[in-house]
Design a protein that fits this description.
mainly alpha; Molybdopterin biosynthesis moea protein, domain 2; Hypothetical protein af1432; two-stranded antiparallel sheet; 13 helices; 5% strand; globular
């Protein structure tokens, strides 16, 4: 059930039960958004006085990292999609926080590194089941949002790390790179990436700066691994030198950037974006395979292709 409540009386971390629009009919926040302090203040600044929240059957909106004890309980229910979704939604909140910090060019929150490590350990427990749950999430949430794209890229990077037999720390770094790869986009002019038509030359030139903007923002975070920062900087580089921002060639592109390129392209293609409708998983995989002849890392692409095809055939 929904209940109307004064925004002034609403506690932080409640979930909205109804979309919120401004006086001109423009969407401000979607139903299900967790109302953190910055978002609440933004609504108040726009003159929004009342919102709707769920009064029964609401999912928990706790912002604390998943504890080791809770992680063990999740492992016991590894086949339970509801448990995976609970962890996923907890992490989505943290990714929203990174977006706000990126927008204002602030250091990333310290608990992010712990949350991505917990996600890494959870996925390592049963990668086959985790892949199935990830694909179900993708089917259920087809519309693009920054936080879903970031978290889904992190998940694929972690799974790739498992399949490529990276060690735990490298797999965690790869997941963190996926989570933060587009953090520079948060500093682009608002609405640019939601444009339905093609970008003009000036807009496109600005978009191509987002890896640099992202790397510069992450440099402000003392605990951020240098390999993650470099992975974020180079995730749009391509093996044939056609990428950006530097046009780096071949083996000069580091592993995390190569992994993120494959993961982010798959996630983007299978999501509804303002300028392109989502495609079927198999279509996206075939496109990745075609691009592995020159642009994308062939080994990484083949591993992802084989694992997802195997999951879809079960």
């Amino acid at each position: 059930m929904k209940r109307k409540i004064s925004l002034n009386d609403l506690n932080i971390n409640e979930s909205l039960a109804q979309d919120i629009f401004d006086e001109n009919g423009r969407l401000l926040l979607k139903s299900g958004t967790v109302l953190i302090a910055e978002l609440k203040q933004g609504l108040l600044n726009k003159g929004i006085e009342f919102v709707y929240i769920e009064t029964e059957g609401r999912a928990s909106t706790s912002t604390s990292p998943v504890s080791n004890e809770n992680l063990e309980k999740m492992k016991e229910k590894a086949n339970n999609f509801a448990e995976f979704s609970k962890l996923y939604n907890t992490l989505l909140f943290e990714v929203r926080r990174t977006a706000l910090r990126g927008k204002y060019n602030k250091p990333m929150q310290g608990n992010l590194k712990d949350d991505i490590m917990l996600l890494t350990r959870y996925l390592m427990n049963d990668d086959k089941t985790a892949l199935n749950h990830y694909l179900q999430i993708k089917r259920n949430r087809i519309e693009y949002t920054y936080e879903n794209h970031a978290l889904n890229t992190a998940i694929l990077n972690i799974l790739l790390g498992i399949w490529l037999r990276l060690n735990n720390h490298q797999t965690w770094e790869a997941g963190l790179t996926g989570c933060l790869h587009d953090i520079g986009e948060t500093r682009l002019p608002e609405g640019m990436l939601q444009k339905k038509g093609p970008l003009d030359a000036e807009e496109w030139a600005l978009v191509k700066t987002h890896p640099i903007l992202g790397a510069k923002t992450l440099l402000k975070t003392e605990w951020m691994p240098s390999r993650v920062i470099i992975g974020v900087l180079m995730h749009h580089e391509r093996l044939d030198g056609t990428g950006y921002p530097q046009g780096v060639l071949g083996s000069d592109i580091p592993l995390y950037a190569r992994m993120t390129a494959v993961s982010s392209i798959f996630n983007a293609m299978t999501t509804d974006r303002p300028y392109a409708a989502a495609v079927d998983f198999s279509v996206a995989l075939n496109e990745l395979r075609n691009r592995s002849f020159g642009q994308l890392d062939a080994k990484i692409t083949r591993v992802l292709y084989d694992k997802i095809h195997e999951a879809l055939s079960r």
